[in-house]
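Exam revision sheet. Question 4 asks you to relate a sequence to its structure. Input first:
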Amino acid sequence: MTSSLGDRYAREFLVGWSALDSNGHMANTAYLNLAADARIAFFAEHGFSPSEFRRIAVGPVIRKDEVQYFRELGLHDTVTVTFAMVAMSADGARFALENELWSPRGERAARVESTGGWLDLAARKLVAPPAALLAALEQVPRAPGFVVLDTGTWKSTPVREPAASR
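Answer key, structure tokens:
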């Protein structure tokens, strides 16, 4: 199911058996998988299915993921995963994304922050997306504090820099 949660794209998923760890709650890698599934669903709904990405020979590549956990999720919980853009270069080549996972009770279970870009699948290098893909990127809801990245630079999620070490 697809909807919007506030000003964010949202998609619902059911936590399945394969997503659990030995403690009986959702495994850390399952959070990353659901975040990716929500993002891919958004692009499919905006004209970029996996087969279209293969056709244009450009695909998303994630350089860094950071997960913060707040609540446990368990077997057969219905999880709402939101998606918003935190930052993007003007040409769309690089981006920082945020996914939040929400429990059936409406409590935030986790936040996934990802930094990435677009990979030319033949040349194996980062590129600016084609015009139609850039248009789809422009439709990704913007997170509060959205910033424009300098073209050609990799940055971690710029609005959430870690505190200095003590």
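Marking note for examiners. The chain has a mean pLDDT of 89.
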